[in-house]
Design brief:
The protein is mostly helical. It has one domain. It contains four helices and no strands. The relative contact order is 0.05.
Length: 91
């Protein structure tokens, strides 16, 4: 692990069991790998790629300014999305 820093953390017994079970099942080579992957996934969720917080805020403001949806319910939105997915791609 080049460039790795050693850190001591405290986790609940349940979380410890989950980590050890993953290693014992052969899903990971070490507990460090389990924690490393968990931290990468956590980081990805906290900082989604593609948009900054300000860009997301701008998109929300734009949506608010556009007014109410022409669709009356989420079911209507899903029906329209499914319909669009079945359409042939336009070239």
């Amino acid at each position: 692990m080049a460039g790795a820093e050693k850190m001591t953390i405290a986790i609940t017994p349940e979380m410890e069991r989950i980590v050890r079970d993953a290693v014992e099942a052969g899903d990971y080579a070490s507990t460090s790998e389990v924690i490393g992957e968990a931290l990468r996934e956590w980081t990805d969720r906290r900082d989604p790629p593609g948009y900054t917080i300000e860009e997301l805020r701008d998109l929300v403001r734009e949506g608010d300014k556009s007014g109410p949806s022409a669709r009356e319910s989420m079911a209507d939105v899903k029906v329209e999305a499914r319909r669009r997915l079945r359409l042939p791609a336009r070239g």
